[in-house]
Sequence to fold (103 residues):
Amino acid sequence: MKLSKLRGIANNAVQPGAWSFPFSSVKPPYAIEVNLVTGRITPEPQGDDVEAHYKKVIAWFHESLKREGIPLSVIEKAVIHLRRETSPACTIIARGKTFSSKE
Fold:
């Protein structure tokens, strides 16, 4: 199992060309956190485009781990942060190592 593959997964999770982001032309009005392990989006979405989009990203994340042979059990934390001030960022922590997307 190559945990170094997680850096590429983190980058692809927030790559503008890979996804049609709900906030591609405007910034989110408030901070949003997407937990890729549990599938939880905070604050709770109201069935909007953000929820639909990130549910697809969450499913893709789980598929990517399987494809790379990385069990979900080694992932301690995997989140995407959306903030008004910055570009989307993804951080994955596995076995004490942190893999972050390029900002």
User: Anything to note?
Assistant: Strands lie at 32-35, 41-42, 75-82, 89-94, 97-100. The mean pLDDT is 86. Residues 49-68 form the longest helix (20 residues).
